[in-house]
Amino acid sequence: MVVLPAELTRESPPGGRQREIRFCCWDGDVYNAFLAQTGDVPGTVRGSLSWLGPSDALGPEEAGTPTDAVRVLAMRTEEEKGPGCAEDSAPVLRAFIRDGGTWHEVATQVVAAESELFSRSRGLLESDALSGKLVAHFGLGSVGASVAVLLAQSGVTNHAAVDGDRLEAGNMARHDAGLSHVGRLKTDYVAYRIREKNPYAHVEKYATAITGENLEDFRSVVRRSSLVVCSIDDREGKLLVNRLCLEEGKVCIFAGAFRRAYGGQVLRVIPGVSSCYQCFIRRLPEEADGLSSSRPGEGQHQQYTDRPTTIEPGLAVDIAPINAFAAKLCVQELLRGKETTLRSLDEDLVAHWYLYLNRRETDTQYEQLRPLGFGLDGLRILRWYGVSAERDPRCQACGDYLSILAGEHGIDLAELQDTEKADLPGLLDEPANDLPGTSDRAMG
Ligand SMILES: [Zn+2]
Questions:
Q1: Domain 2-111: assigned CATH number
Q2: pLDDT tens digits for range 211-231
Q3: Residue 115 pLDDT > 70, yes or no?
Q4: 397 CA → ligand 1 middle, Å
Q5: How far apart are CA 41 and CA 25, in angstroms?
Q6: For position 438, what pLDDT does the model report?
Q7: CATH number of 120-387
Q8: Cα-to-centroid distance, 243 and ligand 1 (Å)
Q9: How far apart are CA 162 and CA 245, in angstroms?
């Protein structure tokens, strides 16, 4: 079978009657022109689309050069309409696949146009409500990759994917990717997955981690974004993204699992309104440090089982709730100001920090929680909790830190030069332990 997007079949190629497109061949009998991204998928075979006028003969012999493995013929006629195409001008499609030198005709299927792809969201979302919005994804691990795909499924069309890592076999149990993608850049994988859900999506790929050195390279990405999602697995990266978002006035959703995925959290940072990530780790160091790691060597004393492991374990079923909630919060942010049925959720999602516990993990403050049972009172596992997380006025990223510090020591900031202001914390022996570059546990 050959699957073609409706848009492709409605437009004749400019300046010619034939153009080449790429088909993906997965199982030998389905060729999908949607995934027409060169080099994206192993096993891609070459195909071409020929446009014939009503008087042209239509048949496998005209299908093309012997080197073509797949050929789709499209013919416009006055009488016939293309299968699945609503417009009168839609072409008739016939597809041929060459097997051992002989062309065989195979079934064709025209897949919905962009406006119809998300028809099942109608009533909840206008099909284009999230179209044109750019979301920047920093970190494409088991949380970030899944959130990106969920947002693509929700109708977000523009994505910036930032991650310097490649997929490893050890990630597969909990990552969205399967073993056939081991070794690929996470940015390439996520771009492929997004386009698989929406072939009209646009994905910018940045195969590098954000650092203090390349911070400015990402400023324009953040500035152009409607929303930023951060699921980087180290604190320095998160602090850098936090700072960029504060400076550019962009809402950032931080999402991650606790160690061994005994729970997870989603933090929504609205500049000037809610606690920023730096406030969060100052006020709740235990929660910040309880975050899990996907880095080799840090997971060995945190195993689920007695089997050796080199990375932080975490079951996919324990991470899935975090991904889903983070994506939901993202959709709600992206719809801010738009009239949709989902607006009613604004009354529910008033907190900026959300906590979820998968189990009563030993050696944590949640060990003694009462079993879930039938109760609804008090903190229990397997439920989301919105928790108040106030801004810290002494926060060095979003607070009035220097003024407060100067006031405490009777210093008039107005009399200081900029360099003296920058040196003030050091001069007053204030530890700058919440700045990027300090050692930290990581999360994945
Ligand atoms: Zn802050």
A1: 3.40.140
A2: 999 999 999 999 999 999 999
A3: no
A4: 5
A5: 9
A6: 34
A7: 3.40.50.720
A8: 9
A9: 15
